[in-house]
Specification:
Helices cover about 55% and strands about 10% of the residues. It is mainly alpha-helical. α2 links the parallel β1 and β2. The longest helix is centred in the N-terminal third of the chain and has 29 residues.
Length: about 180
Amino acid sequence: MRDASTGEQLAAAARRKWNRLDVLVNNAGTSMIGPSESLPEDGWRLTIDTNLTGAFLCAQAAARVMIPQRRGVILNISSILGEVGLPKRAAYCASKHGLIGLTKVLAAEWARHGIRVVSIDPAYIKTPMDERDQGSGDYSNADIERRTPAGRFGTAEEVAKVATFLATDGRSCADGA
């Protein structure tokens, strides 16, 4: 999703089917690994457009439905690499740093409309994208397991549980959930 029309189509489809839009999860992502001095411009643009611009355009389309409803949740899936830098990940880190900043702006701007905008910043999750990145990213499963506190990759299911918790109305840490 890198153009406004796709976000608008998704928001319109939700509105047609359910007459509302309650939750948007911006989870589209790609990576580009390589030395910054030789990173191709088209790889940079693809990563920024997919990971950051696409998320903004989807959030914008969702907000146009959520603002009149006076409620909604937008979850942006960023990364631990939105908080730190890692060699050979200029485009990916820049896009995820930008997504965290975008989340903060939209949260501050749309809170008065009853819209919560939250970033989920997982560390390494075992996905097909990770498998592809290992080939060009000069790291192994053992490297990740060694440098993560849990000593393992996270799972998509763990991220989904966090997203479900954050998307649920009326939940707080005091609820024991």
